[in-house]
């Protein structure tokens, strides 16, 4: 009787063990499925975000293409009908202004430089005269301070303008100029003025040789256009096929 009872108890224990094992397997399976589902959801969300970004980028490029195509059609239509295109005219006017090919006006500074009248104590008269290097120092300082247009004794200073000594005069744009030299610079008057007159600046250095320099701020200066010719014999539009190398 006791043996049968023990066998019954063992059977019950075995049944509980099997049931516990099955429950553990089921729980593990649920956890695995939950983890896979979470990973898949996260991956799907990432892919969806990438897709949305690409769609937005594509739409932006389509808008740019549409705008460019419309502008091209406008230009073609204007050319075909012989009509003046305001966009092209505005662009030409702007390029002419920044290239120095049209008169401009605005606030800025006027700089006047005159040869020294001090007694010659060095024995070299050239020490008391204004040279091309002095003018270049002033022009470069003004450019660095944001000058948007410059002229020297009425000659518009371009990127191609030369400033060099030729005997007792200075050459600019092929013209012979003598002192006094008057420089107009259009830009922020205060910034331009401070750039020239700061301690140890170009005016301070020239003053050590008794070169007379005056800097005056102005609310309105007129700088005339460049009326010479610009050599382009060796220039042609770049094709972009071989950047920085031989064509």
Q: Which fold does the CATH topology of the largest domain refer to?
A: Alpha-Beta Plaits
**Morphology call:** elongated
Based on helices, strands and strand pairing, what is the structural class? alpha+beta
What would CATH call the architecture of the largest domain? 2-Layer Sandwich
Number of helices: 5
Task: Count structural domains.
Answer: 2
Number of strands: 8
Description:
This protein has 247 residues and is of the alpha+beta class. It folds into two domains: 1-83; 103-223, Alpha-Beta Plaits (2-Layer Sandwich), CATH 3.30.70.1880. The protein has helices at residues 2-81, 86-98, 132-144, 189-197, 202-207; strands at 104-114, 149-152, 155-156, 163-166, 169-172, 175-177, 181-186, 212-223. The strands form two sheets. A five-stranded antiparallel β-sheet has the order 3-2-7-1-8. A three-stranded antiparallel β-sheet has the order 4-5-6, with helices on one face. It is elongated and about 115 Å long. The N and C termini lie far apart (109 Å). Residues 2-6 have low confidence and may be disordered.
């Amino acid at each position: 009787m006791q043996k049968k009872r023990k066998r019954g108890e063992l059977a019950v224990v075995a049944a509980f063990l099997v049931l516990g094992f099955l429950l553990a397997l089921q729980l593990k399976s649920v956890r695995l499925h939950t983890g896979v589902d979470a990973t898949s959801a996260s991956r799907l969300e990432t892919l969806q975000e990438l897709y949305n970004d690409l769609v937005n980028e594509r739409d932006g490029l389509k808008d740019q293409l549409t705008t460019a195509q419309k502008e091209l059609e406008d230009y073609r239509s204007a050319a075909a009908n012989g009509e003046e295109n305001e966009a092209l005219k505005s662009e030409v006017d702007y390029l002419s202004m920044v290239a120095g090919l049209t008169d401009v006006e605005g606030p800025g500074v006027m700089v006047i430089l005159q040869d020294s009248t001090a007694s010659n104590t060095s024995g070299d008269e050239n020490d008391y005269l204004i040279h091309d290097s002095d003018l270049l120092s002033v022009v470069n300082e003004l450019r660095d301070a944001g000058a948007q247009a410059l002229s020297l004794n009425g000659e518009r200073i371009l990127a191609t303008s030369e400033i060099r000594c030729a005997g007792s005069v200075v050459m600019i744009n092929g013209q012979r100029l003598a002192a006094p030299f008057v420089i107009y610079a259009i830009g922020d008057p205060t910034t331009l003025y401070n750039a020239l007159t700061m301690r140890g600046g170009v005016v301070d250095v020239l003053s050590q040789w008794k070169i007379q320099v005056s800097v005056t701020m102005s609310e309105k200066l007129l700088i005339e256009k460049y009326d010479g010719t610009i050599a382009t014999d060796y220039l042609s539009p770049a094709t972009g096929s071989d950047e920085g190398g031989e064509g």
